């Protein structure tokens, strides 16, 4: 490791050489590559094939199988140019196995037609399928060869993800040129040799060459499955790079000072006395962790994960009170106005009796009201500010912000969290408390939140009854209408959730609208409301509030009710097209009921037939209510990209690694990161630059 530290920067930075230095890369090509994030040599090294084509042998035409791509060679026997709906060219070739194959073209030039004279020898590659007259290949790749020409590929040909505006052959050539400039092993390698030996993983150089240019005898099945040692090697380094990026972000933030919040806890005590319930052990434990963090001179960076209804808000309120007691301010941000408004009313209910002023800053607060609120926040007249995530981007100036609380981390980007850093006063940065209702498995949390300490509220308040959960085929809808009628006649409330695979707000809103109309016709005695994403915020708000106040019996809604909304009297939920939702989302939705003392149920309607995966999901929902268990299951069933939501954590952006497949590498990553940060911080930087590149630049700032 140390040897690399002594190298001249020029030598160690070959990978960071601009692609403009490659022959054939002018400004226009460079621009197209850059649009795909391909800027340096190492970007091309890490642009990995998604498929391989085997041109290392020639298959007799007789042995071709539909659906199995292969290379064949034969003599043109007949050419037919026709027109059937569109121009078409058919070329029949025959080989020594005396079998015929048809090559079919829909786009072709005159020169091409001239090329295919009978007797000409063609070497073609493509995917055969059954045609009208035996097997055919549509648009094969081909070239004219001489009879004696026998040179075959030494390696499997890589097929790269397409880059707009650059042909596949050019792309392959450029990546080849970049690979020709791969430095020797000693220069390129950044992982300790002992570790590679122990795991039996190849060097980076050898791994890259194997993946881009697999030898003829390579284990193609393993390569396509992503389980080849060369890919595992790359995945390990990539996971390490992401982890290091987050760790460095944390280190950079913790170099800043934060105001230690060490009030006597009088306000917290008074809140506790006023609450109609006692904290659960888990809430207590997490509060104490938070209190310890807040007493420090470096900023707290803590994630609190807890299932829906586990009572995260009260812990957040207590943390805010510690800031207030220290004479400073706290901000609480939520992803939607609806949710932020609910927090506002909760916090006002709890804090204002204690003499704490709570300000409201959301997008719809405008004009003089907004100006007044901003002035109060800037002067310190207000101690707690509640708003949407946009709060941090709208030039709100705080008097002395000491604590930023972010609800629902999975919708809150790393960038936004970093923006918090600038909102402190003087050289102080605010403490950060992140709340999430999407528990993620421990191993994942370590990778995804390497920049945060994680606490779990893994216990629900007493008295919660599990929600009785069933899956029903959609044709049993009429029974449900009766069930709603009955529940509402007994004074309970119900949700009807409309979902569609099409996530255009418009289409879902229409579906919700027609469901609303149908249910209104079928249940004339009920007071029914409708909320969807296309409605004006004020309308949505009013309807939600009416439902919350018991002025509506049934709420027809899209998944806008997914997060945080709390209506204790709602005890029946119907979810349409449940088979199309992921486990995390189903769990979130179901969490809307079962918040009160009445027995609750959740009916998941599905369109038959169910896929295997959908069946497993619905079954999991019936079996358990534990968000942590559901999260583990979710990870197994569909992989982490979706689990965490795309883009939110950057985890979905892995090039090689797959958290579900490579989960066993994660425990290694943390130790390895410690070792690198201690022994070779320069190498740690290079690994981050290599894999995460630009995305990590803000981390270093
Ligand atoms: P979430 O973790 O989903 O944000 P909330 O903070 O909204 O959960 O809490 C859900 C409900 O449970 C709220 O009505 C809250 O007042 C109540 N609650 C919180 N803690 C307790 C407790 N220890 N005992 C009883 N009810 C509680
Ligand atoms: Mg909540």
Tell me what the structure shows.
By secondary structure, the protein is an alpha/beta fold. The protein folds into 4 domains: 9-51 and 158-225, no CATH class; 57-152, OB fold (Dihydrolipoamide Acetyltransferase, E2P) (Beta Barrel); 266-457, 3-Layer(aba) Sandwich (Rossmann fold), CATH 3.40.50; 468-624, P-loop containing nucleotide triphosphate hydrolases (Rossmann fold). It is 40% helix and 18% strand. The protein is built from 28 helices and 22 strands. It has a 7-stranded mixed β-sheet with strand order 6-7-4-3-2-5-8, with no helix packed on it. A 7-stranded parallel β-sheet has the order 12-13-11-14-15-10-16, with helices on both faces. Strand 12, helix 16 (367-379) and strand 13 (384-388) form a beta-alpha-beta unit. Helix 9 (204-212) packs across helix 11 (229-255), helix 11 packs across helix 26 and helix 13 (281-294) packs parallel to helix 14 (312-325). The longest helix has 27 residues, at 229-255. It is globular, with a radius of gyration of 31 Å. The model is unreliable at 1-11, 643-652 and 695-701 (pLDDT under 50). Bound molecules: adenosine-5'-diphosphate (ADP) and magnesium ion. Magnesium ion binds next to helix 14. Adenosine-5'-diphosphate (ADP) binds next to helix 14.
Which helices and strands appear, and what pairs or packs with what?
Elements: H1 2-5, H2 9-12, H3 27-35, H4 41-45, E1 51-53, E2 70-84, E3 86-94, E4 100-105, H5 110-115, E5 121-126, E6 129-131, E7 134-138, E8 141-144, E9 157-159, H6 168-180, H7 185-188, H8 193-199, H9 204-212, H10 220-225, H11 229-255, H12 266-274, H13 281-294, E10 301-306, H14 312-325, E11 329-334, H15 337-351, E12 358-361, H16 367-379, E13 384-388, E14 401-407, H17 414-420, E15 431-436, H18 442-448, E16 453-457, E17 468-473, H19 477-489, E18 493-497, H20 505-522, E19 528-531, H21 537-548, E20 554-557, E21 570-575, H22 583-590, E22 601-606, H23 612-623, H24 627-638, H25 640-643, H26 666-679, H27 681-691, H28 697-700
Parallel strand pairs: 4-7, 10-15, 10-16, 11-13, 11-14, 12-13, 14-15, 17-22, 18-20, 18-21, 19-20, 21-22
Antiparallel strand pairs: 1-9, 2-3, 2-5, 3-4, 5-8, 6-7
Helix pairs in contact: 9-11, 11-26, 11-27, 12-14, 13-14, 18-26, 23-24, 26-27
The protein binds adenosine-5'-diphosphate (ADP) and magnesium ion (MG).
